[in-house]
Amino acid sequence: MKLIFERGEEGQGLSLMPACDVPVVKPQSGYAREDKLNLPHVSENELSRHYSELGKAVHGVNDGFYPLGSCTMKYNPKINEAVAALPGFTGVHPLQPEETAQGCLEVLYDTEKALAEISGMDSVTLQPAAGAHGEFTGLMLIKSYLRFKGEKERVKIIVPDSAHGTNPASAAMCGFEIVNIPSAPDGCVDLEALKNAVGKDTAGLMLTNPNTVGVFDKNILEITKIVHDAGGLCYYDGANLNAVMGVVRPGDMGFDCIHFNLHKTFSTPHGGGGPGSGPVGCKAFLADFLPGVRVKKDAEGKLHASKSPKSFGNVKAFGGNFLVVVRALAYILTLGKEGIPEAAKNAVLNANYMQACLKEDFDLAYNVHCMHEFVLTLDRLHRETGVSALDLAKGLLDNGIHPPTMYFPLIVHEALMIEPTETEPKETLDEAIAVFKQLKKLAYENPQALHDAPTKTPVRRLDDVKAARTPVLKYKFQ
Length: 478
Description:
Structural class: alpha/beta
Radius of gyration: 25 Å
CATH superfamily of the largest domain: Type I PLP-dependent aspartate aminotransferase-like (Major domain)
Number of strands: 13
Mean pLDDT: 94
CATH class of the largest domain: Alpha Beta
Largest sheet: 7 strands, mixed
């Protein structure tokens, strides 16, 4: 399809903006642009067609099954979008007097309290704008605390080999050294490897539980104790909280801080480049080091925002992505104490149902009861037919299904990580299971058909290597 800049001709246009109702003030000399502003010249008709074409070229949860593992691409109630669009939320300014924004401050206050209760933490900051941003914030929290205690020798963060790639990257950004430890055969943390890795230089451990292969680590209390006994802190990556929210709390597992993905677990749609939100919760001994302002209630019930003198600074302006927080609170209040654990249990149920139905035809990376996601290995299928995990994923596209996560975690060969989420009905799961089985049969009968897939999508197979090495990030005007 054509880019918007490739549509239309000079002189075409449309008038959508009302006339300016205030005096026009132009920039002073030296501050105005010298070159003509390059804007597309299109009619309203062409503009409408352009965005309709874009909509047809993408796949979201409204288009079909979207089982992207470790990402929780689930349906999010549209009423929460309506709540976040209320004028009182969209029209607020962070610098207006506190007495005129008590409702918005109450949203921040109530969301912090709710997230703290769900996670078993004592305090929460809503500033971070994404999951990896939350990781960075949590690690800076640990670093600030260790510096305050004078323990500068603690410079190493332990990360399992099955972790999300952002974990070691975030730790490196904070100036830590990364210690990678192998997983045990069951996909969980190797306790002996962990014991050998901890020491006087250990700052902490980064872990998600259930872990990246969808298994709840049965040794979690021993894991956090090993790290604590060595003087380190335990950081919980909240990417997989969707599986356990309201059922078990990271704070009760022994974790000292956690980041949440509001755009995975608490209603804001995931993907599309944003907006996201990655609040960080922590135990009381870390609370004074949290970034940004905290909302507190005085004796008269009035809400005030203030910053701790020990705070390590800001990671974003003001209270973070506020409207994402509004959606999260709407989601939490709608589901309530009973609905939140029910959502988690349904996510686990759907994943185990799909895993049980597929393990007759596919090899499981870990043949155990899973949590919210599970991992298939197509290693044997690849050896016997030449059809790779990538080929099967492309075949799914031709059947209206977004592919699962491919080739992750790295410790599983020809991996497909599948997360059906709690919002899909059994009928959808059964249809997807049937497609998986049909594609496996096709791999043996006509592997070339899967090598050629997809054939029904707006674009066929793209040159991933060229796109990564020579990306075109902006339009080149003639």
